[in-house]
Every structure is written in structure tokens, then in C-alpha cells.
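User:
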Amino acid sequence: MASITKRGKKHPALVRKKGITRCHAFQTRSAAKTWATRIEASNSQYD
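Assistant: Predicted structure:
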């Protein structure tokens, strides 16, 4: 499940799945959401 927040002018996205955490900061919320969706769909990262 992805968590997207706002810190200052950036939108950090945090994805936790099967005990692994990935995070990245973006300038826009839509870019963060796109990245989070792509990471969640990518099963090879977590196998």
C-alpha cells in the first residue's frame, strides 16, 4: 500500500510490501502516485 504525503514543496511516496520499504520524493503528487502504482504492480522487486 502506498502512502503519499506533502513535505514542503515535495511529495514523498512510501510503498511497503512484504516487509520491504521503497520511498522516493517527487515535485508533483501525480508523479508520486504514478511511481507508487508502478512499484506496487512490480512483483519482481519483492520476490
